[in-house]
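Prompt: I keep going back and forth on a fold encoding question. Comparing notes only helps if you start from a blank page. Show me how you would write down a chain together with its backbone fold. Please set it down just below, with no commentary around it:
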Amino acid sequence: MPRILYYLNLQVLYDSRFLRFQVLIMNSYEQGKKARRIASVVYLLIMTIIMGGTYLSQQQKEAADKTMQDSTDH
């Protein structure tokens, strides 16, 4: 095989391996991106539950305090 064809053959082989490597990196990147999105949604849900629970607890406490004041005023 002439040297130039041998070189081109190696170059094509190298490029195809490089492309496969790039595809693996992109798949890995896409999976990581998906995992980050899922984690951020779970985080937002947990924070919403915590903040909502805190708000409801505060509202109940204020309502109980107001009821207690109304009952002591009469």
User: Anything to note?
Assistant: DSSP finds one helix and no strands in the chain. The first helix runs from residue 3 to 73.
